[in-house]
Structure formats: structure tokens, C-alpha cells
Design brief:
The chain is mainly α and 188 residues long. It contains nine helices and no strands. The protein has a single domain, classed as Leucine-rich Repeat Variant, CATH 1.25.10.
Length: 188
């Protein structure tokens, strides 16, 4: 085998023909890496705005407690409460917000929206909201309320909302049981 053929040249059967420029031994082929980088950059520029149009990037994929905590730290309590109250949001976004509610700096802010979701008839949102409400109630400390300068009386209002869910005979039995436990935890 001739050395020019081993380096990507033409076979020895046609030595008179000129070699293509890209496979010339003097000029290595470099366009492939540049084209790949340009394609990747172009793809990122096209995909990023589409992902940002969701309004709640990342809420759908929240599952791991570290991801949830990072989301809440980055976006704040307002983003989670907004997703809880937004009736036009996708189911996955609302479920992500429900999972994130106990991780809020002020979990008492999520108790009202969670009670309204628990009182609803959605088979996915209602039980998840009930469990999240109970975790929020357990996460609230009166010391934390005073440190955040929140009035402890808001717990009484939240307890009344959860008690109303517990007393609602049209609500699911499992949601009613969790709502009663949440109302009791908030009454103390």
C-alpha cells in the first residue's frame, strides 16, 4: 500500500489524478469539528427559547428532594405559589409545585392553595395536595413564623380551610382523612 493511500489519498491505480483538497496530506480535514460545534450551538439557540416559553421551567421534572430544594432556592416561594394557583398550568407543573410546597421558606403560604386543590375533584391533584398540605403543616414552626414576621393567626385560617375539606362529604375519603390531620396539626 502506498503512503499516500494510507493517509487518505487516492489509490495507487490512478496516480495521475489530483488529490481532493480536503484529503490532501498537507491540509488535514478540520471542517467536521467546526460544523459539529456550529450545529450544536444553533440547536441550543433554537431549543432554549422554546423551553423558556413554558413559564415554569423545571417544575415538571421535580422529584428528587435536592432538585426541589434547588428549584425553590433559585425561583423563590412566589413561583411555587403561582404554579399552585394557576389553573391553566399543565398537570405536571402543578404536581411539581405541590411536591415543592413543603420546601418553601414560608410553607404557610401554600396551605390555602393546597386546601383548594385537595377539595377539588382531580384524581391526581387532590391526594397529592392533601399529602403536601400535611407536610407543610408539620414543617411550620411558630418560631419561624415570628422570625418571618408572619402573624400566627394565619394558621387558624388555614386550619379552618383544611377542616372544611375534612367535613366535605363529596371529597375523597383519603383526602378527608389527611385534611383532618392537617387541620389538627395547624390548630395546635
Amino acid at each position: 500500500m502506498s503512503p499516500s493511500f494510507a493517509r487518505g489519498g487516492i489509490p495507487p491505480e490512478a496516480p495521475d489524478q489530483p488529490q481532493p483538497l480536503a484529503t490532501s496530506p498537507r491540509r488535514p480535514q478540520r471542517g467536521g469539528l467546526r460544523a459539529l460545534c456550529a450545529t450544536g450551538l444553533l440547536g441550543a439557540l433554537v431549543i432554549a427559547p422554546v423551553a423558556a416559553q413554558d413559564g415554569e421551567p423545571g417544575l415538571e421534572s421535580l422529584g428528587d428532594p435536592l432538585e426541589i430544594e434547588r428549584y425553590v432556592d433559585t425561583n423563590g416561594d412566589d413561583a411555587v405559589v403561582e404554579a399552585l394557583t394557576n389553573e391553566d398550568a399543565r398537570l405536571e407543573s402543578r404536581l411539581g409545585a405541590i411536591r415543592a410546597a413543603p420546601w418553601l421558606t414560608g410553607p404557610e403560604r401554600a396551605l390555602g392553595p393546597l386546601a383548594r386543590l385537595a377539595a377539588g375533584d382531580d384524581p391526581d391533584l387532590a391526594p397529592a395536595a392533601g399529602r403536601a398540605g400535611q407536610r407543610c403543616a408539620e414543617a411550620i414552626a411558630v418560631d419561624g413564623l415570628t422570625a418571618r414576621e408572619e402573624d400566627p393567626a394565619i394558621l387558624g385560617e388555614a386550619a379552618a380551610e383544611w377542616q372544611a375539606v375534612a367535613d366535605d362529604e363529596t371529597a375523597r375519603p383519603d383526602v378527608r382523612a389527611v385534611a383532618a390531620a392537617t387541620a389538627q396539626a395547624l390548630s395546635i
